[in-house]
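TICKET #2291
ISSUE: user wants both folds in one file
ATTACHMENT 1:
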Amino acid sequence: MGFLKATDSDLWAAAKVANRVIISKDHDFYDKALLLGPPPRVFHIDIGNASNKKLIELIEVGWPEIEKALLEGCRLVTLRREGVGEEKPIISVF
């Protein structure tokens, strides 16, 4: 499948069959994870506009908790930050 032209439904179906984690800033995947549950699991990044450097920093700081939740089979893990410029990520697990 050409993932660049795939619809959200195509990506969801492919990730479900392969038992993968979808990593996305798209709220549609957040909603699907809550409604449909795993598989696939979703790592939702909800930090608004941020540089790639800031995004990587937040993921690195939160990674131990993110990885643990995904390995335990949580259907949805969300990464947020407390406010603009905040260094500490907030991890929500469902």
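ATTACHMENT 2:
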Amino acid sequence: MPSTPPPGPDLIKSVRAAFILRDQTLGRWCRENGLSLTHARMSLIGAWNGPKGRAFRLRILEAAGLPPPANHSTSNDLPIRRRRRSAA
């Protein structure tokens, strides 16, 4: 299976083509899952590239049946933020 392109226009094209092959569209998948198509596009082009954007991108790739990019970081690699309890 060919590798998944990095975030950018080629990734959007690959994702859209993969959804079409599954008789689905990216827009319909987003609506059925209660997600924003705008955020999906932003994560796929790399404009939304923080931990949540990368997680969203991986979720889209999984739904489209595409492998994650070779250089992606897993959720275990992301720093965990914990709230500090107030002293009061």
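RESOLUTION: both attachments delivered.
EXTRA DETAIL ON ATTACHMENT 2: The radius of gyration is 15 Å.
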